[in-house]
Amino acid sequence: MVIGKSKKPRCFKNMNMNALPVYYKNQKKAWMDRALFQEWFEKQFVPNVRAYNEENGLPDRALLLIDNAPSHPDDLELVIGDIKAIFLPPNVTSIIQPMDQGVLQALKQNYRKKLLRSLLEENEDLTILQKLKKITIKDVIFWVAEAWENTSVGALQKSWKNLWPDLQFVEEVVPPVNECELLPLVKKNTGMRKCREGVC
């Protein structure tokens, strides 16, 4: 879910909000609150889990582990049939919180690549600040969705290592980052035209 301040930002004009690759909601301060979380659980999490389970021949049940943030409803409110949420113990360090075990880092890394590529591909006559000001919530939503799609199964599985040590992991080969692929884009930008491989 992506939360913004505006119900329908200008950049979404003439766009079907249901066609977005994420669930977009608005809140006055663009914060998660109990009502939004409850709505996400009922309208997004449960239907998506049911569709996944049916598609894969699994029973209609699931357990969502969440931290006990003030923005989350009571776990008793997050139950629909055999699909429910339970809280991790309070004040648990990131050692056992699955999303803190590299998943968020991978997501952020993928997102930053999208942002950097966008800044480098944008009109070379604009300053970085001008380019940043042109970015809309729509751009961010599509970058986040693509960054999530590029987060590997291996990263997700490894995030459970501390809570579920017996889980079998998919071994994956992570391709090395190729800085040279961005070099032509970097050279196009003002102040970077004299960049050479290995000397930037």
Detailed description of the structure:
The structure is a single chain. This protein is an alpha/beta fold. The protein has a domain at 94-200. It is 36% helix and 10% strand. The chain has six helices and five strands. The protein has a three-stranded mixed β-sheet, with helices on one face. Strands 1-2 form a two-stranded parallel sheet. A hairpin with a 1-residue loop joins β4 (79-80) and β5 (82-87). α2 crosses α4. The two termini are 38 Å apart. The model has no long low-confidence stretch (mean pLDDT 83).
Brief sketch in words of this structure:
36% of the residues lie in helices and 10% in strands. It is of the alpha/beta class and 200 residues long. The mean pLDDT is 83.
